[in-house]
Amino acid sequence: MTLSRRAILGGAALALGTPALVRAQLPVLKVGSTPTGVPFTFLDTKSNTITGFMVDLITAIGKDQGFGVEVQSTPFAALIPSLTTSRIDIIAAAMTATPARREQIDFSEPVYAYGEGAVVKEGESLPGTSMAALKGLSAGAQLGTTYAEAAKNAGLDVRTYDSVADIIRDVSLGRIKVGFGDGPIVGYQIGQGVFRGVRLLPGYKPSVVGSINIGTRKGDPVMARINAGLARLIGDGTVQRLIETWNLPPAVQG
């Protein structure tokens, strides 16, 4: 973060008595969000903009804390590199705060916890309801996700893909036996009829449970504002209303 941006972030909070000046000085931070993570983040083809639960949340946090947001479509695997090279200022996507990621960037307090879902072809039966029980099967997971690593460690024959849609296509065509993706994302899309010929594996127990967190560069002071805004929005019920608006299931306890 440049010195001028730090000054703006601090100055906006001090100028509460001059609303016009505050509006003029509000910083606009670049937010990286993926175009394929419905309902967390996705491309609305009608408006050609990125929308979703995490977009609504970071926008509300910015409004509460005195900064604007400019959402940029960013592939999942490019989120952290884009952040660390200052092409974006914030990550607001379905990204879990793993130890490896915490070594590279800072994360906010938890927003929402969930695990992976297992997608299978309609009518297909598998030998179990966990990654460990599916050892040896052909599987798909999105490039750069924790699910790909976990599935490899569990002994599945893993192919990596750029998007969940590509994974589910290959499941429906019988090219792979099972596809792993964010449980709420794949469940939402199957329920909406976006993906046909597949279903979530009944009774599946997630192996990787984590929380979505908002990301910033190491040491960026904007994180204090993000956490303060998040705490306020959790306390006043805004986060729960957004969860319900986007039809997310109850959070998973890890």
Explain this structure to me?
With 254 residues, the chain is an alpha/beta fold. It folds into 2 domains: 3-111 and 213-245, D-Maltodextrin-Binding Protein, domain 2 (3-Layer(aba) Sandwich), CATH 3.40.190.10; 114-209, 3-Layer(aba) Sandwich (D-Maltodextrin-Binding Protein, domain 2), CATH 3.40.190.10. Helices cover 35% and strands 23% of the residues. The chain is built from 10 helices and 14 strands. The chain has helices at residues 3-14, 19-25, 53-65, 79-84, 99-102, 146-153, 164-172, 183-191, 222-235, 238-245; strands at 28-33, 36-37, 41-44, 49-51, 68-73, 90-91, 106-107, 112-121, 138-142, 157-161, 178-182, 198-200, 209-212, 215-216. Strands 8, 9, 10, 11, 12 and 13 form a 6-stranded mixed β-sheet that branches. It has a 5-stranded mixed β-sheet with strand order 5-1-6-14-7. It has a 3-stranded antiparallel β-sheet with strand order 2-3-4. A hairpin with a 3-residue loop joins strand 2 (36-37) and strand 3 (41-44). The longest helix is centred in the last third of the chain and has 14 residues, at 222-235. It is globular and about 55 Å long. The protein starts with a helix and ends in a 9-residue tail after the last helix. 43% of the residues are buried.
